[in-house]
Design brief:
Thrombin, subunit H; six-stranded antiparallel beta barrel; 12 strands; rod-shaped
């Protein structure tokens, strides 16, 4: 087969049509024509509007994950901020409640100190203000420890009182502190006086009855004692000054089979405050100087008065 007879033209699939240069010129001219027409006539604006309307749902769907993520982050951020704000509010509320309680406690303590100062001014004997440190841990005794001892002039046997009445008695004295035995201790006793009738009794501590009370022993069944009678110190023991409040009668049990009545009283002072007064025993009080009464004036006789007058008149 001769080589001249072979068809060297490209098949229809690979035919290029116009050349690349011709296409460049053609499309460049077409672009200039379209830009000029759009600039003068605004032909592309309706097309753009239609395309934007058609693409709006697609854009909304494309932005939906981002918007959801932002909303979720904002939600959790708001929850964290609300939790922090609630925690700060709770902290401030607790702090304000604590300050309010402290203010109320300071007001009560201030009132207690004012009453104690007034009691100290009304009391004629020497007294020292003390503060309660703690209550002893011995379950078989009712004792408290105060912050003053021998170096402050505290002596054993001194009476301890507060604004309500007698608290107890100093039983042990150390250099910087002292131990006070309360009236409700089983080993403590105090002479008392019924303020209504004037009868004297001896009150002993009873830590079990009424949660801590005083028991009046050897009281005749016929004694005139009634509930709510006020018991005060009698002053016959030389330790407690007379007239201090001790307690009020709570129970009076008169039995037929015994000649004595069973009487219990509730102490007036429940050692609730932190500040108290320590009174020295009455035997240690300084003696008051004797009161010197002026000498009575005597009248001179009438004759002596006339003689004195004449003598004074005759004197140049």
């Amino acid at each position: 087969m001769a080589l001249d007879s072979i068809d060297r033209s490209p098949p229809p699939f690979f035919r290029q049509g116009l050349s690349a240069l011709s296409k460049l010129v053609l499309f460049g001219f077409l672009s200039l024509l379209l830009m000029s027409a759009d600039h003068r006539l605004g032909l592309s604006q309706p097309v753009r509007s239609v395309i934007s309307v058609a693409l709006a749902p697609v854009q909304w769907m494309a932005l939906l994950p981002t918007r959801g993520s932002d909303a979720l982050q904002a939600y959790f951020k708001g929850v964290d901020e609300a939790r922090d704000a609630a925690h700060q509010y709770q902290t401030r509320t607790i702090a304000q409640a604590q300050r309010l309680q402290q203010a109320e406690q300071l007001l009560q303590e201030n009132q207690h100190l004012r009453e104690l100062l007034q009691l100290r001014n009304d009391h004629s004997g020497p007294a020292k203000a003390v503060q309660v440190l703690y209550e002893t841990a011995d379950p078989y005794s009712h004792n408290i420890v105060i912050d003053k001892g021998v170096l402050s002039g505290i002596v054993a046997g001194s009476a301890v009182i507060d604004v309500a009445g007698v608290v107890g008695q100093v039983t042990r004295v150390y250099p910087l502190s002292s131990e006070v035995t309360l009236l409700t201790d089983r080993d403590q006793s105090i002479p008392v006086l019924n303020a209504r009738t004037g009868q004297r009794f001896i009150a002993f501590g009873d830590p079990l009855t009424l949660g801590g009370s005083l028991e009046l022993r050897f009281v005749p069944a016929s004694a005139d004692l009634q509930p709510d009678d006020l018991l005060t110190t009698s002053g016959v023991d030389g330790i407690y000054p007379a007239g201090l409040h001790v307690g009020r009668v709570q129970q009076v049990d008169r039995r037929i089979d015994t000649a004595f009545a069973k009487v219990h009283a509730r102490p007036m002072a429940r050692h609730r405050g932190r500040h108290m007064l320590v009174l020295q025993p009455m035997s240690d009080w300084p003696e008051r100087p004797p009161k010197i009464e002026p000498a009575p004036r005597t009248r001179k006789p009438a004759s002596a008065a006339k003689a004195a007058a004449s003598t004074a008149g005759g004197t140049p």
